[in-house]
Amino acid sequence: MTNEIQFIEGEDFQIPDGFIVFCDMDGTLVDTDYANYRAYRQAVIDVTHGTRDIEYIDERLNRESLGKRLPSLTGLQLEVIADLKSEYFRDYLADTRLNDTLAQIISKHSVKNKIVLVTRCREKRVKEVLEHHTILDCFTRIICYSSFR
Q1: Could you give the CA distance from residue 107 to residue 28 in angstroms, rounded to a whole number?
Q2: 66 contacts 40 by C-beta, under 8 angstroms
Q3: First CA to last CA distance, the chain
Q4: Is the distance from CB of 20 to CB of 114 less than 8 angstroms?
Q5: How far apart are alpha carbons 66 and 56 in whole angstroms?
Q6: Between vectors from CA 56 to CA 123 and to CA 125, what angle results, nearest 5°?
Q7: H or E segment at 77?
Q8: Do the strands 30-31 and 97-98 form a parallel or antiparallel pair, or are they unpaired?
Q9: 3-class secondary structure, 2
Q10: Residues 68-114: tens digit of each pLDDT
Q11: Which of 35, 69, 70, 112 could cysteine-pair with 92, CB 3.0–4.6 Å?
Q12: What does residue 107 show for φ and ψ, rounded to 5 degrees?
């Protein structure tokens, strides 16, 4: 049995006790695109010793899109950049933006409901982001990238 509850902005949103609520992170609960870009940018500059840089565009940056934007990078450089980006990301957590309305709903209803986060992010990054925004404890379960393998 599936029940859908519609959210109307400005109205008191109620979830009946005992429901399981599923939520996505990137772009839904938290906008991480700019922090992601800044971490990639720092990694590119470090790996290329300052000879390459990338400008911010309003598009999610990943290893594939980075390779298209900087085709002169080798496969090994892209691997090193991706690894460094993962390490640098925590330095840019302040550049992530929480969806306050959704976070309040999750926080309010986490006491009497199961809240499950489902995301393609890696567990380390998920926990860093949720801890930064002090909402990690709202989630009963986190299903992340490593769970999909």
Answers
A1: 15
A2: yes
A3: 28
A4: yes
A5: 12
A6: 10
A7: helix 75-88
A8: antiparallel
A9: coil
A10: 999 999 999 999 999 999 999 999 999 999 999 999 999 999 999 99
A11: 35
A12: -60, -45
